Amino acid sequence: MVQRSSYPVSAHYQPQSRPPQPGRPQPVNPQAMPSRPVRPQPGPHHRPTRRPAASAHSDRPQPRQVIVAGGSMLALAALLISPNLNQEQGQEAEAFTCIRQEQPKAVVSRNQIKKLLETDLQAPKATVQEFLQVPYCVLSPGKTEAGLPAEREAYPLEFDPQTWLVVLYEGDRYAGYDFRFR
User: Fold this and answer.
1) Cα–Cα dist 138/130, whole Å
2) Which of 5, 24, 50, 155 could cysteine-pair with 28, CB 3.0–4.6 Å?
3) How far is the C-alpha of 102 from the C-alpha of 135, rounded, in Å?
């Protein structure tokens, strides 16, 4: 029985012992193989393609392929972990929607923010509104850190109109502030 090798044979290889017989595969002697790697020869319908120069690590996946695969897996994991993501975003956007617009050109300056930072919690609402003036709008009611209901007023920042200062009031008392980044 003739032992056959699974290695590709070069078209330049000719066995030394017998002439090749058409239609019958010839045995391969691994010791007679050249020491350099052998490339398979292209077939008659082969179209040459341009490839970038081969690197020493051509068998490794390219970084772009790894990033795409990793990003896909990360996106899938995010969907599985938080399937109600759109509902949460909708609720958050709804929480920062104006229910009543007061002064469309109202903005708050750095000096006004500085005064607010120096104001004590539980100060009267009128004291805070004295230096902040009329708000841009009144937001839907929210909650304080203690979980108590709070009225909220919004002021766009003079130096960054996409960011709002949100001032909270518990009844008639100043309860704190927050920033909303749009």
Assistant:
1) 16
2) 5
3) 6
